[in-house]
Fold this sequence. Notes:
The complex is a heterodimer.
Chain A: H1 2-14, E1 21-22, H2 25-35, E2 38-44, H3 49-56, H4 62-71, E3 72-78, E4 95-100, E5 105-111, H5 116-124
Parallel strand pairs in A: 1-3, 2-3
Antiparallel strand pairs in A: 2-4, 4-5
Helix pairs in contact in A: 4-5
Chain B: H1 2-18, H2 22-31, E1 98-102, E2 119-124, E3 134-136, E4 139-144, E5 154-156, E6 163-164, E7 174-176, E8 179-180, H3 182-190, E9 194-196, E10 199-200
Amino acid sequence: MKLLLLSLTLTLSLFASSISFEKDLETAKQKAIKTDKKLMIMYSTPTCPECNYMKKKVLKDNEIVSFVNENFVSVIMDIKEDEKILPYKFIGIPTFYFADATNMKLLSKKIGGTREKQFLEIIKNVK
Amino acid sequence: MKYLLTLVLTYLLSSSLFAYEQSDLDKFLKTNDCQECDLSAADLSNKDFTNANLSGSNLSNTNLSNSIFVKSNMWGVDLSGANLINTNLRATNLTGADIIDIDKCDNTTFKGVTFSNATFENVTCTNLSIWSARFLETTFENTDFTNAGGAYASFRDVDLSDLNIKGAIFWNAKFTDSIVKKEDCDHLKSEEAILKNVECK
């Protein structure tokens, strides 16, 4: 029964209409280590138009949602509220950091907003 | 001899016409505030001028590359021929600015900038950032915003007939009381831009 529920949850998350963002970086790290996935950290603020374009348009794209949920554990960090616990320096927002959760080694990053096709290419090339 | 003299005179004349006032430059570098100053052809690159006040100043042929002018007042500045490569002008007031003859504007950030009554003429930029910028009665002549990022930007009372917006991101951008080329109207609709009283011709 437990296995069935787990499979169902996993299947649903893969076909979910939005990316499952964790509530904070620590939770995301633990989950990424546990599930052997990479971390996707988005630096943002609620008033940043470029960030909102990414959140409301690009990160809603079905193919991106599926790929991100399947390969990453994601978290959004507010550069003002989370100022003291930001793991990486930044020069602008939005910035997406892709990292190895075990040691927080940065695998790649993307600064600024972009179209769905380019973003998909970026996340597929995170190694 | 005459030829040499003409050359020297031409050089001297052009230098005096296009050079900045040293006292203005000194004042600006010291105070971050220089209104109606002559900073033409000055080198203001690679510096942080956040919250600067340069209203009414002459910045023609000035090098602003890699510099930061976030939240600055640049009302009525003359940016003719300026170098804006990697310049960050986020949330700056460029009301009434002359943005003319500019081809050095790769990766320029105009995020949230106010361009009311500004003039764009002979401007070709790549990877331009105009997210949430406001264009009110702005004039565009031979201007190229190809592939710019401009979601949430707003355009009111503008004629976009001579503005190239091919491939630009205009998701949720607002176009009101404006004139847009037919093919650009199709592009804007596919971008889910909001068009109100827009003439597509």
